[in-house]
Write a structure and sequence with these properties.
Layout: H1 4-13, H2 15-48, E1 54-59, E2 70-71, H3 72-79, E3 94-105, E4 112-120, H4 123-126, E5 131-136, E6 145-149, H5 150-155, E7 164-167, E8 170-180, E9 188-192, H6 193-199, E10 205-206, E11 208-212, H7 216-228, E12 234-238, H8 239-246, H9 248-282, H10 284-292, H11 297-323, E13 330-335, E14 340-345, H12 350-377, H13 380-385
Parallel strand pairs: 4-9, 6-8
Antiparallel strand pairs: 1-11, 1-12, 2-10, 3-4, 3-11, 5-8, 6-9, 7-8, 13-14
Helix pairs in contact: 1-11, 2-9, 2-11, 2-12, 9-12, 11-12
């Protein structure tokens, strides 16, 4: 086995080309980790939004709450169905809600975006796992007050605490900030149901009804009963089913991520191969000497492959470290189902880290293989004649 310090000394001797290769690999890994961290964060947000016992009741054929209409009478009928869970004081966990999309300027003069404004009753908080007010207070019924998440407060003008949010020419005061377990709810602004209905002239109309079932069997029974009732023309989806449809947004990001990974990886392979070919050419006499001393072809192959992998591992580690500060940073993307903005955070989960390691291994192997094979095929006499 050729001593590892021989390879380390070689890399230090060619420090300029070694450094450029490390930086190139780091850039590739950083870009790939960033792209897939984006998709991982979006997947995570929609996954934690889905509670299996929670059902979303909408008009049959509606793909989202924004294009669903449920009349008030039907909402009252749904609240009386057996199988719905109740809270500690016996109130049914049934939340009729009205959803409208409001176009609002983003902070920093970066254009505008659509945000979800949801009219709710107190029951809404109980059918959202992890919901809590973290700053300020709850909005009071009958007043033009609203609460929102910290993410939306940072992204949109008028959505910060104590600011005025313009809703179709009417100002709503933001009186509180909430968290909801990093779910899709943190992409919304909440206000009183009746106030929003009067503001938007949709009195007596609901977009959806959210209910929590007692058990999985009750959830299935409720879903079947609602679907079979032709009088109301409604359908019930479990939250995981509902958000699975919206998760299609992340598939486009993954496709783009794979394309970026492939294109950049090809470039990185050529960069590593160029460095290693240079190493083989400049060390021909050393290779001939190693062969003359009795080191076999396989030993030399392994030595050069390890050198290539070391370069890529250094670049991969640098790329991951550069991406680390972005972990947990909030951003947003368009939800093409609701045509609103979905806020989420970068998340570099286990599969993103495994992907980065695999990428480094592939680039290091492909980039070092052919130069290493060339080194092993050099004849001792020809190698010793090289200058």
């Amino acid at each position: 086995m050729i001593p590892v310090k021989y390879n380390i000394r070689s890399l230090r001797t060619r420090w300029v080309s070694s450094l450029m290769t490390i930086l190139g690999t780091a850039l590739v890994v950083w870009a790939v980790v960033l792209t897939f961290g984006l998709a991982d964060g979006l997947d995570h947000t929609l996954a934690v939004s889905g509670e299996p016992l929670d059902l979303i009741i909408m008009r049959k054929g509606a793909t989202a709450e924004t294009n669903s209409i449920v009349n008030e009478a039907a909402a009252r009928e749904m609240a009386a169905l057996p199988g719905i869970a109740s809270d500690a004081v016996g109130e049914m966990l049934c939340s009729p809600e009205l959803v409208v999309v409001v176009n609002t300027p983003r902070r920093g003069d970066t254009g505008s975006g659509n945000m979800i404004l949801r009219g709710v009753t107190p029951a809404a908080q109980q059918v959202r796992t992890g919901f809590q007010i973290v700053e300020g207070r709850e909005n009071r019924p009958g007043l033009r007050e609203a609460i929102t998440s910290k993410q939306m407060a940072r992204r949109f003008e008028g959505a910060g605490l104590n600011e005025e949010l313009d809703v179709f020419g009417n100002n709503f005061t933001i009186v509180g900030l909430f968290e909801a377990g990093h779910s899709a709810t943190e992409s919304e602004v909440w206000t009183d149901l009746e106030v929003l209905a009067q503001t938007t002239r949709r009195v007596g109309i609901r977009s959806s009804i959210q209910i929590r079932a007692n058990s999985a069997d009750d959830a299935q029974s409720l879903s079947d009963r609602i679907a079979s009732d032709e009088q109301f023309g409604l359908a019930a989806l479990s939250e995981p089913e509902y958000y699975a449809e919206q998760a299609k947004s992340s598939r486009a990001i993954k496709v783009v991520g794979v394309f970026i990974a492939v294109v950049l990886s090809v470039g990185a392979v050529f960069a590593v191969a160029n460095t290693m070919y240079g190493a083989v050419a400049s060390r021909a006499r050393e290779i001939g000497t190693l062969r003359a001393l009795g080191f076999g072809r396989r030993t030399i192959l392994v030595s050069f492959m390890l050198e290539s992998l070391a370069l890529c591992l250094a670049g991969g580690a640098l790329g991951c470290l550069a991406a680390l500060p972005l972990n947990g940073m909030s951003t947003g993307t368009a939800n093409w189902v609701t045509f609103s903005e979905l806020a989420f955070t970068f998340r570099f989960g286990p599969w993103v880290q495994v992907l980065a390691l695999l990428l480094v291994a592939v680039v290091g192997t492909m980039g070092g293989l052919f130069p290493a094979l060339r080194a092993t095929r050099m004849k001792i006499v020809d190698a010793l004649r090289e200058i």
